[in-house]
Amino acid sequence: MMSLNAFAQKIPVNYDESKMPSFTLPDPLVLPNGKPIKSKDVWEKAGRPAVLKLFAENVYGVNPFSGAVKIVSEVKTVNENALNGKAISKQITLRFPEISPTLTLDILLYLPKNVKQAPVFVSLNFTGNHTATHEKDVFVTEKWVNSGFDKTFVNNRATDASRGIAERRWPMEAIIARGYAVATAYYGDLEADHNEGWKTGLRSVLTPEQREKWSAIGVWAWSMSRMVDYLIKNESLIDGQKVIALGHSRIGKATLWAAAEDPRFAMVISNDSGEGGAALSRRWIGETVEHLNTQFPHWFCANYKKYNKAVAELPVDSHALLGLMAPRPLYVASATEDIWADPKGEFLGAVEAEKVYQLYKKTGLGTNTMPMPNSPVGKTIGYHIREGKHDILLYDWQQYMNFADKHFEIK
Ligand code: GCU
Predict the structure, then answer these.
(1) Which residues are catalytic?
(2) pTM of the model
(3) Residue to mutate (ligand 1; options 250, 253, 318; most atoms within 8 A of CB)
(4) Pick from 250, 237, 407, 296: which is nearest to 7 by CA?
(5) In angstroms, what is the span from residue 31 Cα to ligand 1's centroid?
(6) Pocket around ligand 1 at a 6 A CB cut-off
(7) What's the CA gap between 120 and 105, in Å, rounded?
(8) 104 closest CA partner among 114, 91, 117
């Protein structure tokens, strides 16, 4: 957990289930006219679009760009002998000339050498591509970075000394060895993560009204979809049917929203996404909507602030967001010490999403008992709670690859 700012510190934090008021979850399987949804056809035609719209208008914001986005890509480096000869690495810069002449999204891609068409994890990083690896040819990001994230960052700029600082989160060799590709990009490329980050990012081209209606998380989700645009069109070593959206924490929130909006993500993984992600907002445990909006006012759309003191009025909750992934395989993970993210709330979000999966005759988690630490459970929805801190580690990746092997039938 990061330290809370002065305003957020004044908002009470509760960790005691017995003090938590009871609540009723909104039912995603009811149409706006009050009729229950009983089939996947009605869900897909009317129910799902209505829930998606509620999330856009009240939580993650309305994406102002409709239709295909023109992308110009430039492959800047190719290394046929990356990761001790096991992988091909590429660095690709995406530009969006019809939107802005200056914005860039820099992808670092690792492809396993021995796989004809690899499934790919698409996942943003917190600190720049060069922090995910020690490989010397990876460019140091020149974008704004949060100096509070690492001591190697000076005046909000990354330095050479920050190479590899996030390597524990990116076990590239282990991923490549299992036949998976990884595409990552810095989450701050299209919007720096601070209150005025929009001024130099994608939202700078919008009208004030469009900007307020969208959000930083919306922009980060948008970047993930642009990575998919590039990958499926240009990378023949990638299997476009096996694109996995994966994200940790605030990027986990953005990842869930990316996959809700973009059906090309065939599998979705939320790692410790917490409040505003997989955790039920109506549970008064750990972080709340009010904490989020106070400490990170740019993350969500302006309307989300209406629910600071009125979470019961939110027309949706995390189970409905997770339900938007159906029938795709979805994995939700927590960590035992990550109580700020409310692990039980993340688990219950996944439990409650089951009813949407049932429309497709799929078992979601198939249990409503929270498992012991380090004991993955589930069917089309997977879940584990790892022993330890708020983080994404090799253990987590291993469970995600086991889950992906099972659902993609990789032997
Ligand atoms: C803060 C924030 C969380 C977020 C986390 C992170 O702790 O309150 O909502 O998930 O940062 O992104 O690491």
Answers:
(1) 249, 390
(2) 0.98
(3) 250
(4) 296
(5) 33
(6) 1-2, 249-250, 274-275, 287, 292, 340
(7) 18
(8) 91
Looking only at the bridges linking them, the beta strands covering 104-112 and 87-95 are antiparallel
Task: Return the structure tokens found at 284.
Answer: 């008064």
Distance CA 374, CA 385 (A): 6
Give residue 272 CA to ligand 1 midpoint distance, Å. Answer: 9
What 3-state class would DSSP assign to 237?
coil
Beta strands in 8-97 (DSSP E): 72-81, 87-95
Distance 292 CA to ligand 1 centre (A): 8
Cα of 386 vs its chain's centroid, Å: 18
**pLDDT tens column, 272-327:** 999 999 999 999 999 999 999 999 999 999 999 999 999 999 999 999 999 999 99
Q: Where are the beta strands (DSSP E) in 144-180?
A: none
Q: What percent of the chain has pLDDT over 90?
A: 97
Nearest CA to ligand 1 atom 13: 249
Q: What is the ipTM of this complex?
A: 0.98
- The letter for the amino acid at 399 is Q
pLDDT digits (tens, 9 = 90+) for 136-153: 999 999 999 999 999 999
